[in-house]
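Lecture notes, part 5. Sequence design as translation. It can be helpful to think of inverse folding as translation between two languages: the language of shapes and the language of residues. The source text, in structure tokens, appears below.
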């Protein structure tokens, strides 16, 4: 697992290491969103066979962002999803906040069977990473570890944008019929 942060600057927060060897250091969110530079760093790591050997499992790349990049991100994103070894990665994205730019994050997962996940609170973020962990765990124990399991195979269903919209619709309908909407 490796972690690249991209707030006011892009940094390799956690170099690639086995999950059991990682000593967690807290992350902080804020600042700008230099997505293009972060994608270039991630791509460089994936393309470097000394960092990610050919015999390694197919990488899973998780993008957690508000989807509001403030740098030249289009070319680095297109290169990441279209060229070289990074194009073969499984890609997941989580939109953070109610005003997240779903179009930018959707481009990151374009061409995969993955849906865009959404978090407005810590529980949804935790559930998403449980899903990611279970997905990777299932793959490592599989006879075909480079095949990505569908979300329905995993018993954790993170909140998606579609589920959030369905929930909002049902809350709107039920609030008008129950207790004047106070609950």
């Amino acid at each position: 697992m490796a972690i690249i942060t991209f707030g006011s600057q892009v940094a390799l927060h956690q170099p690639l290491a086995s999950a059991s060897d990682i000593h967690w250091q807290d992350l902080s969110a804020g600042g700008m969103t230099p997505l293009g530079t972060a994608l270039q760093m991630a791509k460089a790591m994936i393309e470097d066979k000394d960092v990610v050997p050919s015999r390694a499992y197919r990488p899973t790349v998780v993008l957690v962002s508000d989807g509001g990049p403030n740098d030249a991100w289009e070319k680095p994103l297109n290169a990441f999803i279209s060229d070289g070894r990074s194009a073969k990665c499984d890609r997941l994205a989580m939109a953070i906040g109610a005003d997240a730019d779903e179009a930018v994050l959707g481009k990151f997962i374009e061409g995969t069977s993955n849906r865009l996940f959404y978090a407005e609170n810590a529980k949804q973020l935790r559930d998403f990473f449980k899903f990611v962990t279970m997905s990777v765990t299932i793959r490592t124990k599989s006879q075909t570890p480079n095949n990505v399991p569908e979300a329905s195979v995993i018993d954790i269903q993170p909140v998606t944008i579609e589920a959030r919209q369905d929930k909002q619709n049902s809350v709107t309908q039920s609030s008008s019929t129950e207790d004047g909407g106070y609950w």
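The translated text above is only one of many valid answers, since several sequences can fold into similar shapes. Confidence is low (pLDDT under 50) at residues 152-158, 174-183.
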